[in-house]
Amino acid sequence: MLRAALLRLTRGSRHTSERRVQLPLPPTLPAALGCDAVGVPAEHGFRLMARLPRTGCVFADTDWWWWIVPAGSDLDLAWPSPARYVTGTAVPAREPRLIHWPEAQTPYTPPIPFYLMVCQLTGASPAWAPDGAPEALTPAGE
Question: Rg for the chain (alpha carbons), in Å?
Fold first, then answer.
């Protein structure tokens, strides 16, 4: 758990020299779980949106599409390249605009189905630990 928290902190400090834009979440959608964003190149946006069973707020500019996920959706997950996980909603983008308003009363795209779709799209195998290695299980009582 500590390793995941440290990884999360270092991920948040990457790409600090890039210009960041705050994604304006609709005030009518409660975001009680906090918000992070996952970006994919625009060329994959429509394909991902069409295949997801449920989609939250999606923002797009000419280069990237950004999905809103609950905060901490990167813990114990290794999001495959070219996807970019951003802690919070300040993303490296030019002029993102809201292109999808969710049907549900929440801004979130469910992160696990989204993660699996991104893995399928990129040809990556899902990795459930930050370093991509399977977690060792210990028998109960040890």
Answer: 15
